[in-house]
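INFO  loader      accepted 1 record
INFO  loader      residues=236
INFO  predictor   begin
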Amino acid sequence: MSLSKVALVTGASRGIGLSISQMLVGLGYKVYGISRKPENCLYQNELFHLISCDLSDPKQIDQLLGRIPDKKEISLLVHNAGLAYFAPVEELSSEKIREMVNLHITAPMLLTSLLTRYLKQNQGRIIFMGSVSGKEISPWGNVYASLKAGIHHYARELFSELRKFSVKVHLIILDITKTDFYNHLNFEPDEDPKSYLLPDQIAEVIEELIISDKGWIVPEIQISPELFKLKRKKQI
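INFO  predictor   done
INFO  writer      dumping tokens
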């Protein structure tokens, strides 16, 4: 049996997922990170194992656990992978809609279903990375925001269902965070450092949830920067 605790983190090669993975490695976890393009990640550690998998393809998810030799020891599942396309509803292609649905709804549900038996055995933990978009009306965010609202409700359902088996479920609702999430959008965080969160700050909050295990649980938490400021990108 492995001496390390074992975690599975989606979207682990960059941004928030990479910061969470690095934090978990620091806590002694063996981390299996899921990434569509693991070759782009420069971080290396003997406890960090990136696996190439396109989570928008359900067939690849079905084969994923067969590539994790100690899958039965997984005690932490972090649903972090995501992307967003913002546009008027008639301008969103069916391909982009399917990609978002598969990544934000189908993939977390399939992975959770595949791993819950082990998480129950290990009295483990599931963390969902939500978004304030799932709580508010988001201009041109019709699909993305609706999917986030859906995964918020799924996390709440799981909290109620799994707590009797000592599986802890957390929903982390994120506000504006400075990552490459905004690379292909027409807006981005303001330059003011008080107007955005950093991936390492998100990882710090999750670390507190993991190490402060005192017999009670925080099922849901929203993290927001001090100021609300966005800016539109200059059109070239």
